[in-house]
Design a protein that fits this description.
Elements lengths: L1 H8 L7 H7 L10 H18 L4 H11 L5 H8 L3 H23 L1
Helix pairs in contact: 2-3, 4-6, 5-6
């Protein structure tokens, strides 16, 4: 199953997780302090570390949706999945990320 899924992923071009961290290094607004920027960078790095740990079947739909800006139908066509399955996987990925980040926050 992993090989088949990986083959489908070769068709997908998404921004790398490194690009996610790099593109968010500029102040979000001109009034953002150095401390706020450092906190935001740390949060992005923490999220990136948790993202790479997600199972492939949840990680890719989430990345395609948020980083590539694809809609649920496009993701479904690319991964050969029905749109409700894509929605479910995105929701579950977000739940997993939230749970992991909350556990590490304690």
């Amino acid at each position: 199953k992993k090989r088949k899924y990986a083959r489908r992923m070769k068709l997908v071009t998404t921004e790398s997780l490194d690009a996610l961290a790099e593109e968010n290094t500029e102040p979000a607004d001109p009034g953002e302090t150095t401390e706020e920027l450092a906190i935001r960078r740390a949060e992005i790095e923490r999220m990136r570390a948790h993202l790479v740990k997600l199972p492939e079947k949840y990680k890719w739909p989430l990345l395609m949706y948020y980083l590539s800006g694809m809609d649920v139908r496009e993701i479904g066509r690319t991964l050969k999945l029905p749109p409700p399955t894509v929605k479910t996987r995105i929701r579950r990925a977000k739940e997993m990320l939230r749970k992991e980040m909350d556990e590490h926050e304690r």
